[in-house]
Design goal:
3-stranded mixed β-sheet; 398 residues; 15 strands; 13 helices; globular; homodimer
Chain lengths: 398, 398
Amino acid sequence: MRIFIAGIDGYLGWPLALYLSQRGHVVAGADLFLRRQWVAEMGSASITPIVSMADRLLAFAEHYRQPLAFYEGDLRDYAFVEQALREFQPDAIVHLGEMPSAPYSMLDVQHAVFTQTNNLVSTLNLLFAMRDVPGCRDTHLVKLGTMGEYGTPNVDIPEGFFEIEYRGRKDTLPFPRQAGSWYHWSKVHDSNNVMFACRMWGLRSTDIMQGVVFGTRIDEMNGDPRLLTRFDIDQSFGTAINRFCAQAVIDHPLTLYGKGHQQRGFLPLRDSMQCLTLAIENPPPTGDYRVFNQFEEVYGVTELAHKVQKVGRELGLAVTVHNLENPRIEKEEHYYQPDHQRLLDLGYQPTHDIESEMRIMLVDLLAYRDRIESLRDVLIPDIRWDGTRRKVGFIESQ
Amino acid sequence: MRIFIAGIDGYLGWPLALYLSQRGHVVAGADLFLRRQWVAEMGSASITPIVSMADRLLAFAEHYRQPLAFYEGDLRDYAFVEQALREFQPDAIVHLGEMPSAPYSMLDVQHAVFTQTNNLVSTLNLLFAMRDVPGCRDTHLVKLGTMGEYGTPNVDIPEGFFEIEYRGRKDTLPFPRQAGSWYHWSKVHDSNNVMFACRMWGLRSTDIMQGVVFGTRIDEMNGDPRLLTRFDIDQSFGTAINRFCAQAVIDHPLTLYGKGHQQRGFLPLRDSMQCLTLAIENPPPTGDYRVFNQFEEVYGVTELAHKVQKVGRELGLAVTVHNLENPRIEKEEHYYQPDHQRLLDLGYQPTHDIESEMRIMLVDLLAYRDRIESLRDVLIPDIRWDGTRRKVGFIESQ
């Protein structure tokens, strides 16, 4: 299949290009390198030293001996999107080209506006190009959403839609979303726009409500450091397990926000690649809008910190776990029971050995101990959901 | 109360300024006059000859002998929004400053992107200004949504939220939205953003899911033609009853889209003013996000066309009703039972004499027969939901 990756320079985009190429697919991608800028704006950098796209492409060519067309440009520019699709004629588009951080979106009005307009406009441009570029009407859009779209309702979370009875009548309706940041809401807005385009124009899409991804590598990097993906640890672009592992290797306490009783769906990077590929290789029928909840298992964040602590200690690291004042406004105690059956039905085989994955990560990150140490300052958040900006303090664990 | 009307030059904004001033409130408003441009872009113009804002303000001063501060500027410019709120210090903001047309938003990718970014950014700017401008944290945002956010589900439509039982557990959740155009989705996105801001920051808002408004006047125009509001009849900015009345006075068939069995909530312009004022004068508690469904009654569009026909014939007009090919993709037969209790509880007294209102409209519009005749071409739509643009044809009534 011919697969176009929007956001191919990112944490998921780059390994996905390798993973799909390994399986014999023809890959192209687009990027504007904004992720590198955003992380720099946070005073941070990728812990894994990532090379330029030119060098990535050179290394790719050496290992994979097949073309990888790269389009440098802005997905908010319709002419750019149109030309890329017209030239490449993809069977599937994986849209990873969005601003993916909740704290970044909560910084101030400019960042909130940027997040929502950047994410909505890129998706609208892709939808219109699929409708209007000859040969692309049947292209399958694999759109990255997030489990965070649903929030933490007091009922089970289905995969996108649910049948309800209300005042004696029945209907199947989109499951209500209750996101927790401007970023998460941008994903909800996108989901609604994609659902509408499929219904209006007979486009087809898989909307992936993905959990939190963690990991430093997939096998398809072939041990070549030029093929590594980025790995962020700052408050905006570093997510829970990744940040815990970085903290563990520099003897920094693992930081839980608030009580640390929050539960979320998680999955290793290699599982994300497997799941996205299953979605791509098993497209829905034309005109169908389907939703997958994509994660391996629900974990409590405290439980995950203790797993990192256990594995870290096995590696001789002195790991402590501390609670921080919560910079976010979120429920810290909540019911959480999301369905995640559809990818299993397609053949998803979860790794399930989360501690082995953590061990690989810690060993990988030990090689970059100095880089992490030099970025120690970015590990404690200061972007607060109430609009103020000041470092949060440690609190008693609860 | 001090009330700031965003979009004060529009169909609802201008009469609301008069209505509120008559009741003793102090009004200010902002506009960039985009509505005048959009209608011109549709090849049309207001049937009522509206004067410049300078002349409107002069007439206002003559009749009302109180200040009306006008801010010309772009609500997408945060600095503009911030300065206006800082200066005026409103108790309430009525946000009518959005692009309000479904067909206009469906024209092409540029219009879809414009609609969603214009509407979202203006609302985000107002929310952040309410949070950050000293003295505005407690300001009440009256945000105009639309009944079209809900679509036409097969169950009753509550006012914003509903309690459900799902797999044996209960929760109160936002009612799922199923909008039918990029414009309507922009309103859903806005509603979600406003709900989130209230939850995060303790702002307060009333989100008005308004039905289709019709009418040429309210009493507070005092018979002065300079105080008239605009009246549009083109496919994008002219809505059902207004368009029917314009068609009736030039002997053009009243045009129903498709079978004409669609049902919608409608209300006269004077009821819209009454309802908005009730919402303003009865603000919710700080931190509350409440939703009102705002309409007088649900009518079938065929039924309304026949009412216009009846009243028109009483006035000596030869009125016919014809079905057109439907340019939209929408359900033409559907269940429709939306709640609308909350405004009644606050004291809303519906006009309920829709035929009297139609008579006033027809008499008013007969004075502009030549203007309507000169715009006859804009009465048949050509913007289709499938992305093509060509005039729809007449079909047999069904």
